[in-house]
Design a protein that fits this description.
This protein has 19 helices and 11 strands. The protein has a 7-stranded mixed β-sheet with strand order 7-6-5-8-9-11-10, with helices on both faces. Strands 2-3-1-4 form a 4-stranded antiparallel β-sheet, with helices on both faces. Helix 15 links the parallel strand 5 and strand 6. Helix 5 runs parallel beside helix 7 and helix 9 crosses helix 10.
Length: 459
């Protein structure tokens, strides 16, 4: 988890119609203000933060530095929201009674205090107090000022795990609060994986995740591209798979002309764990043709096409995502598959597939770092519904396979009911199915988010 070394308050954004004003003479959109707007919009819609953030940045003219600050603040506040709420409740009598835009400004400022290095205290205090005063007046501005300065005087104490134990006297609640993971998820991990792995998963979810790159091995000079990435500081995880830590991202993007690599189709953005999950199932040996049944934006389909596999059909229920598949194939100079809007529950195939890739809808508990909005939106009831849906998709996929056909089942969650136990239940329902390979992200590797993969063969 990002640690701030000093006790200086940082900055944050303002949101909603109340906080769209700019300082006199300020011509650009301030990253702090835009972050608040995005966070308040997320209070209104149940959508991934990346979608809301992308639309907000596309609709406004802002400097790259402001866009980067806005992104850091939005993701950071969502990752640490449970802890931020607790800190406000400790230093304010009734924070829940404050106007929501003001609470959002305080979240941003407290996050900056705890986790953003290089931000002087006055930058956060002055910004937050000015925004509150402008909208709500002097009384609430004094409340904001007093709260932020009191938290600032706590110094580095809120960075310590022990800081959260005495008020709670409960180990699981302490873990939930410190790593800002909903208590029901902490309990699920303890029950499913034991204490050690539950703590590792919680800690990983609070970190800024590493970015993943996949080098296009169909390009003649792909090894030169891989060497350039490695020399610039990217960590090679497999032959064509690289991890870029947040601290090295700017340097690698500059040294390697990453934008040019992407534009020329030499590399693609794909999560490291996603790449390793696919590699673990030995896709080069899968029988063709391949149907990618939950293709999303086609990341795995393109990876398979780069391996020379015959991906004949990709489908998804979301038409907007499917538009990206054709775009990606053009960028990477790959043969485009047949693209169909369809549900994996109702296969669009008239002939039996050699291999079906089922990157199933899941709870996303393995990607809480890159999808921190899941902490807000996901419920235990959602998980039960998803378990039933995954089982139905597995059954439908099995029926669409011929003898010797392969079924690759992949999730981005860490939950035995959706992963190992889901596969065991499937095997009991289908005696002709066999488990060939199984893979789970190593919890101790902090570069990898939580993915699960299993390869099933129909005999």
């Amino acid at each position: 988890m990002p640690q701030r070394k000093g006790a200086s308050l940082g900055m944050h954004g303002s949101s909603s119609k109340t906080f769209q004003h700019q300082e006199p003479g300020l011509q650009r959109e301030d990253g702090r203000d835009l972050a608040v707007q995005v966070l308040l919009r997320l209070d209104e819609v149940r959508a991934p933060v990346q979608d809301v953030l992308s639309r907000a940045l596309a609709a406004r003219r802002c400097e790259p530095s402001d866009a980067a600050l806005c992104t850091e603040l939005c993701y950071g506040v969502l990752r640490m929201e449970i802890r931020l709420n607790w800190l406000l409740s400790r230093f304010l009598r009734a924070p829940e009674k404050l106007p929501q835009p003001m609470r959002c400004v305080l979240h941003v400022a407290v996050y900056a205090l705890l986790f953003l290095e290089g931000m002087p205290a006055y930058a956060a205090v002055d910004w937050a107090v000015a925004r509150v005063k402008r909208t709500y007046g002097q009384t609430l501005a004094k409340v904001a000022n007093g709260c932020l300065r009191t938290i600032g005087r706590e110094g580095v104490a809120p960075q310590a795990y022990a800081y959260y134990y005495a008020p709670l006297q409960d180990a699981l609640a302490q873990q939930s609060l410190f790593y800002s993971v909903p208590l029901w998820i902490v309990r699920l991990w303890h029950k499913g994986y034991g204490t050690d792995k539950a703590v590792l998963l919680s800690a990983k979810s609070a970190n800024r995740p590493a970015a993943g790159l996949r080098v296009n091995i169909l390009r003649p000079n792909w090894k030169d591209v891989a060497r350039q990435l490695e020399n610039a500081g990217a960590q090679r995880m497999a032959a064509a798979c690289f991890a870029i830590t947040p601290k090295k991202r700017a340097r690698i993007e500059a040294q390697c002309s990453l934008a040019a690599f992407l534009g020329e189709g030499k590399v693609s953005r794909q999560g490291v764990a996603s790449q390793l999950a696919l590699d673990a199932l030995h896709p080069a040996a899968w029988p063709d043709p391949i149907w990618d049944a939950c293709a999303g934006q086609g990341t795995k389909s393109c990876a398979l096409l780069e391996l020379g596999k015959n991906v004949s059909v990709v489908s998804d229920t979301h038409l907007r995502r499917l538009f990206r598949v054709a775009d990606e194939c053009r960028r990477l100079n790959l043969p485009p598959p047949l693209i169909v809007q369809a549900s994996a529950l109702r296969p669009p195939l008239h002939t039996q597939a050699g291999t079906i890739v089922l990157d199933a809808p899941c709870s996303g508990l393995g990607v809480l770092a890159s999808r921190p909005d899941i902490r807000r939106h996901r419920t235990e009831e959602d998980v039960q519904m998803l378990v039933r849906r995954q089982a139905a998709m597995l059954d439908a996929a099995h029926d669409s396979l011929g003898t010797g056909g392969h079924l690759a089942y992949i999730t981005c969650t860490q939950n035995p009911d959706e992963n190992e136990l889901q596969v065991r239940a499937f095997l009991r329902r289908h005696p002709r199915a066999e488990l060939a390979f199984e893979w789970n992200s190593p919890a101790q590797n902090m570069l990898l988010e939580g993915m699960y993969a299993a390869l099933l063969v129909k005999r």
